[in-house]
Specification:
Elements: E1 2-6, H1 10-18, E2 24-26, H2 29-34, H3 40-54, E3 58-61, H4 67-80, E4 84-89, H5 92-103, E5 108-113, H6 116-125, E6 129-132, H7 134-139, H8 144-158, E7 163-166, H9 172-180, E8 185-188, H10 190-195, H11 200-220
Parallel strand pairs: 1-2, 1-8, 2-3, 3-4, 4-5, 5-6, 6-7, 7-8
Helix pairs in contact: 1-3, 4-5, 5-6, 6-8
The structure holds SN-glycerol-3-phosphate.
The site of SN-glycerol-3-phosphate has 10 residues, from helix 7.
Length: 221
């Protein structure tokens, strides 16, 4: 199972990378805007900075929604760095573009996926990654984790190569549930990744060990 961080914040990417468990990064236009990054030059420079930090797949999303525009932007993004994965929305022209990128050996991440039907189309087009937004599915009173299970079942039956990249993760529990459900990759905010470290019994147990060690050292004096 691979871990990506879902942010464009360089400090957070660095922190997750320092933990030694980070495999890649996903971004989107909202996350770039949150960092105050705008304009083609600044956006591209930021992607290059992220690639240099992580040395793993970095999803960079196209803004165009027409076939020609997606192809032009995607090719330019892919040229920025060997680790760039072109993120393409789940729309008709997006699927056509994914098919083209796949034929050219350009890696893609099909984003804004909310149904198993969409997942089948993306896999047929040859997407490298598929991003079901499980938190947003939950927000609309459906079951995001169940969607991962459904897609995993279908991909397993047909042995599709597309990797399920569970996105829109809201908690550490989401990460565990996605792992149980066969997601190949989970992209999560730093808080959800770091939350995996936590258990009250770990803290209580460690405090006890350290206290006993100190007591024994004191007794020996
Ligand atoms: O990777 C997609 C993700 O950034 C969307 O997350 O929390 O905006 O639904 P969220």
């Amino acid at each position: 199972m691979k871990f990506f961080i879902d942010t464009a914040n360089l400090d957070q990417i660095r922190e997750a990378h320092d933990l030694g468990i980070l495999d890649g990064v996903t971004t989107n236009p909202s996350l770039m805007a949150k960092e105050g990054i705008s304009g083609e030059e600044a956006v591209n420079a930021h992607y290059v900075k992220i690639c240099k930090l992580v040395h793993g797949p970095v999803s960079a999303e196209v803004i165009a929604t027409d076939y020609e525009g997606i192809i032009k932007e995607g090719k330019a993004l892919a040229k920025l760095n060997e680790h760039i994965v072109v993120k393409v929305p789940m729309i008709k022209d997006g699927i056509k573009a994914i098919k083209y990128f796949s034929s050219q050996g350009i890696k893609t991440n099909c984003t804004l996926v909310f149904s198993a039907g969409q997942a089948i189309l993306a896999a047929k087009a040859g997407a490298t990654y598929l991003s079901p937004f499980i938190g947003r599915v939950d927000d609309s009173n459906w079951d995001g984790v169940q969607l991962i299970q459904e897609i995993n079942q279908i991909y397993s039956i047909y042995q599709f190569d597309t990797q399920i990249l569970a996105a829109s993760i809201r908690s550490s529990l989401h990460i565990v549930k996605c792992a149980q459900s066969g997601a190949h990759v989970v992209t999560a905010p730093l808080s959800a990744i770091m939350g995996l470290l936590k258990h009250p019994l770990t803290d209580i147990g460690l405090a006890q060990f350290l206290a006993d060690h100190a007591k024994a050292a004191e007794a020996k004096k």
